[in-house]
């Protein structure tokens, strides 16, 4: 498994698990739940934040949040 923060732009991945349970509720409210597909849309010029598509809408995540999401290629 890889971390979401290590995925390249345009890649489609599936959420598998979370490392930090404290951030899990916040991410779950935003549609980031295990089994959901995520596509990396953009990375900011300095690398943080990243723009993703999840559950049919666009979302911006900081890298420290993305590091807590474990994913696999779809």
UniProtKB/TrEMBL annotation:
<dbReference type="InterPro" id="IPR007167">
    <property type="entry name" value="Fe-transptr_FeoA-like"/>
</dbReference>
<dbReference type="Pfam" id="PF04023">
    <property type="entry name" value="FeoA"/>
</dbReference>
<feature type="domain" description="Ferrous iron transporter FeoA-like">
    <location>
        <begin position="2"/>
        <end position="73"/>
    </location>
</feature>
<dbReference type="InterPro" id="IPR052713">
    <property type="entry name" value="FeoA"/>
</dbReference>
<protein>
    <submittedName>
        <fullName>Ferrous iron transport protein A</fullName>
    </submittedName>
</protein>
<dbReference type="GO" id="GO:0046914">
    <property type="term" value="F:transition metal ion binding"/>
</dbReference>
